Amino acid sequence: MLQNDLLLRAAQGLPTERTPVWLMRQAGRILPEYRAVRARLSGFKELVETPELAAEVTIQPVDALDVDAAIIFSDILVVPEAMGLTYEMVEARGPFFPETIKSAADVQKLRVADPAEHLGYVLDALRVTKRELHGRVPLIGFAGAPWTILAYMVEGHGSKTFSKARRLLYQEPTLAHQLLEKITVTTIAYLQAQVEAGADLVQVFDSWAGILPPAHYHEFSARYIARISEALAPLVPVTVFAKGAWWAVEDFAHSPARTIGLDWNQSPREVRRQAPGKTLQGNLDPCALYGTPEQVKAATEAMLREFAGGPHIANLGHGVYPDTPAENVKVFVQTVKAWRG
């Protein structure tokens, strides 16, 4: 039994005494506790792949920030690595794939990953975290949306345009679908295994949704997210977050996913009109947390007013930035908890 089940109730569309709150990337460099753990290690991947340490930093924001949920410390790129495409995390530059997907032969070489065999360290981290939380708050599992994973596998690194990945959709759509199929099957099995290991709900991150035109998003992303949602929704509540793709609400409105995440450029009132009955999550601009405490409080209250009229999970419109003052994050959390609008 959970001592604090506000997030789960909100994600199910049930009444809550107040708005639950957590932050994307809440476990990270905003916390000195995290920086202390990271300083002892060779790098990001060692932290992700060491279950006890991943569990420790997952729980840190529950203690330090008093948020209403923990989200397992991991990375969306563990999925392509489990499929046979190794990535590196380069300091100050981000992810890098020494090998990329260029041909049908490359796709054929990829395996559909077995979660227990190829992603066991994430599942172990979930089990340890679940045990150490002692039911204080729900535990969120997650994965990247297939399109976002494809974008990295084809491009090889972060990009402003992801032109190589987008070119694939135009020049070789059949090959793109073959790759998306393998990613989707792997992701469904991975998220199901996360639930078995202790995740109380799951979120699908489509970080690069906004670089696709709407027709391509529908064909190459939304349909695969729908399959993931259909497979997971009978088990736990599902949240979908498609950054920069306001047009995706039309797809998500009819999806089994119960919660729709909003970035800071979306109107909660408009999304409520398009997707009545859904729980909404978001959507404070992460840069608002650079203001004074008074400005953070005012911006948070303004955001909360915009979400009136339906179930809401307070969050940012994207991940918290690593140089954000931790005290301002606490103001954000405390303001949400005090809100009774």
From TrEMBL:
Q: How does it assemble?
A: Homodimer.
Which catalysed reactions does the entry list for this protein? uroporphyrinogen III + 4 H(+) = coproporphyrinogen III + 4 CO2
Query: Which pathway does the protein contribute to?
Result: Porphyrin-containing compound metabolism; protoporphyrin-IX biosynthesis; coproporphyrinogen-III from 5-aminolevulinate: step 4/4
Name of one Pfam family that matches? URO-D
Swiss-Prot/TrEMBL site (Transition state stabilizer) positions: 75
The molecular function GO annotations come to: uroporphyrinogen decarboxylase activity
Entry superkingdom? Bacteria
Name of the protein this chain belongs to: Uroporphyrinogen decarboxylase
- Enzyme's top EC category: lyase
EC number(s) given by UniProt: 4.1.1.37
Q: In Gene Ontology terms, what is a biological process of this protein?
A: protoporphyrinogen IX biosynthetic process
UniProt-annotated location(s): Cytoplasm, Cytosol
Uroporphyrinogen decarboxylase (URO-D) domain boundaries: 20-29, 140-156
Organism taxonomic ancestry: Bacteria, Pseudomonadati, Bacteroidota, Cytophagia, Cytophagales
Which InterPro entries does its entry note? UROD/MetE-like_sf, Uroporphyrinogen_deCO2ase_HemE, Uroporphyrinogen_deCOase
Q: Which family does it belong to?
A: Belongs to the uroporphyrinogen decarboxylase family.
NCBIfam families this protein is in? hemE
Entries under PROSITE patterns matching the protein: UROD_1 (PS00906), UROD_2 (PS00907)
Give any Gene Ontology cellular component: cytosol
Q: Which residues bind substrate?
A: 25-29, 75, 152, 207, 318
Q: Which UniProt keywords apply?
A: Cytoplasm, Decarboxylase, Lyase, Porphyrin biosynthesis
Task: Give the protein's function.
Answer: Catalyzes the decarboxylation of four acetate groups of uroporphyrinogen-III to yield coproporphyrinogen-III.
